């Protein structure tokens, strides 16, 4: 990452968004060590980040770093990764005024847990030190003299062509029909514009606020410099050690720790976000930074995904069974008919990678209340809301669970309630032009479940297929459980309706 672009103005903007203008003044900032959880694709090149970790940290007094002669050049080195920064600031208002301003900005009292309190700042040796956090924004007891600290994470993203080429390399190394099919469509598999998508979504969240802002990681600033190919977000520092975050990076133990209450709360919060954009296909499909799956696109892509499915069966026969292989191939063969059903249903903005690798729960230490926090929005797109639901259930429920139908129906009811609330007060959370439509009617439980079954097949045949190809290069330890869970539910729920056989309510897209 080009740290010379991280100027005082950049850090002051962060403080302004966190606390409001003219409340704090940036004094000094420094880069700290961080153990960031990377995505699968990043893990393939994870060693590249080690060069950054070994380098001298930058700060307000030493913002530039010259590369060591021992560093090995890498396409994504000095370009991508997660970087933890501590910003020390001076308060410009007295405590009462600071609290008042903070309530109107990102660090409202119940969302300020990643702020290190002034009372503890003199004894801290690093970001992991505090074990308890004040439930209010910490401010100096002596106006304009004492400093506060805010820890933030700067997430610097690789340009989309780097990820596209990385996936193409994996396909080419497989050889055969997969290599032949993948190269011509490599730009269509969802990674195009990935370097700007999260930046654009952050700005969308600032605009629409409401549920999208509530469930997202707080974004304090974005940095886009096309000339230097620098695309970065400044995020809140989510640290379970501070006592206000749970269930982070829980994939390997998810079935043991995600209780019914946790799943219900997550689905309720997720549904409120889905409701915010429900039925807004035209607006979402017009957002050029999104890579949206469509019926027409699947007609182009289904041959390459068929090759992925076949390759996974060959490479990982203990993971990808003959049954799952066959039903996936059948789905792809008839994707035009399945997507006719999906496109006849209202779609929404979905997270697109909604699983335990990319979500956690916020915890209010005072009340014990928990709420969803989602991050890593690179794969967000326009899709049916059930697509997020089935992926989430695949990760948090054990294989063979009999609770899928219950949770799918729970999400349907929560989505309906959230959408009706928006209709009653449309301007409260969803300003124009994304105002809720009044002509959407909700399906019966069985109709909603049928679409969820198609969404599950979509997840199995495309995302799981890509996971399998990735696992051929770097083993994904959680993949067998997820594949087994998906297969068990496909068997249990039965095949989805293939053509437009759902009985639709007149005047409804459902």
Automatic annotation (TrEMBL):
Residues 51-72, 118-142 are annotated as: Disordered. SUPFAM superfamilies: Protein kinase-like (PK-like). This is Aminoglycoside phosphotransferase domain-containing protein.
């Amino acid at each position: 990452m080009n740290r010379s672009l991280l100027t005082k103005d950049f850090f002051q903007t962060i403080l302004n968004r966190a606390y409001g203008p003219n409340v704090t003044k940036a004094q000094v900032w420094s880069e700290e060590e961080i153990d960031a959880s990377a995505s699968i694709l990043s893990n393939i090149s994870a060693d590249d980040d080690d060069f950054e970790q070994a380098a001298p940290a930058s700060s307000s007094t030493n913002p530039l770093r010259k590369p060591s002669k021992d560093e090995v050049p890498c396409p994504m080195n000095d370009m991508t990764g997660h970087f933890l920064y501590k910003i020390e600031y001076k308060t410009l208002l007295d405590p009462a005024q600071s609290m008042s301003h903070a309530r109107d900005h990102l660090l409202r009292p119940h969302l300020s847990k990643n702020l290190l309190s002034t009372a503890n700042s003199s004894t801290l040796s690093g970001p992991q030190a505090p074990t308890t956090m004040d439930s209010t924004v910490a401010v100096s007891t002596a106006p304009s003299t004492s400093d506060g600290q805010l820890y933030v994470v700067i997430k610097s993203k690789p340009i989309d062509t780097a990820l596209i080429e990385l996936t193409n390399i994996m396909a080419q190394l497989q050889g055969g029909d997969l290599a032949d099919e993948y190269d011509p469509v490599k730009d269509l598999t969802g990674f195009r514009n990935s370097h700007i998508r999260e930046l654009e979504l952050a700005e969308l969240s600032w605009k629409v606020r409401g549920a999208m802002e509530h469930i997202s990681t707080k974004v304090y600033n974005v940095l886009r410099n096309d000339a230097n190919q620098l695309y970065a977000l400044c995020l809140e520092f989510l640290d379970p050690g501070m006592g206000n975050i749970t269930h982070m990076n829980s994939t390997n133990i998810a079935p043991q720790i995600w209780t019914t209450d946790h799943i219900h709360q997550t689905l309720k919060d997720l549904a409120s976000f889905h409701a915010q954009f429900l039925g807004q296909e035209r607006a979402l499909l017009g957002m050029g930074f999104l890579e949206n799956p469509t019926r027409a696109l699947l007609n182009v892509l289904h041959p390459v995904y068929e090759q992925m499915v076949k390759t996974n069966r060959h490479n990982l026969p203990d993971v990808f069974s003959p049954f799952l292989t066959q039903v996936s191939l059948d789905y792809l063969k008839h994707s035009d008919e399945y997507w006719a059903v999906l496109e006849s249903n209202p779609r929404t903005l979905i997270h697109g990678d909604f699983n335990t690798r990319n979500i956690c729960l916020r915890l209010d230490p005072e009340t014990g209340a928990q709420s969803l926090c989602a991050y890593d929005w690179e794969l967000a797109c326009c899709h049916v809301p059930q697509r997020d639901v089935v992926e989430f259930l695949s990760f948090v429920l054990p294989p063979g669970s009999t609770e899928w139908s219950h949770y799918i129906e729970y999400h349907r009811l929560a989505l309906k309630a959230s959408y009706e609330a928006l209709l009653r007060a449309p301007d409260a959370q969803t300003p124009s032009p994304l105002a809720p439509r009044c002509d959407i009617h909700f399906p019966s439980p069985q109709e909603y479940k049928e679409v969820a079954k198609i969404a599950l097949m979509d997840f199995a045949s495309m995302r799981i297929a890509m996971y399998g190809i990735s696992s051929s290069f770097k083993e994904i330890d959680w993949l067998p459980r997820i594949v087994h869970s998906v297969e068990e539910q496909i068997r249990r729920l039965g095949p989805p309706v293939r053509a437009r056989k759902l009985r639709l309510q007149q005047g409804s897209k459902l």
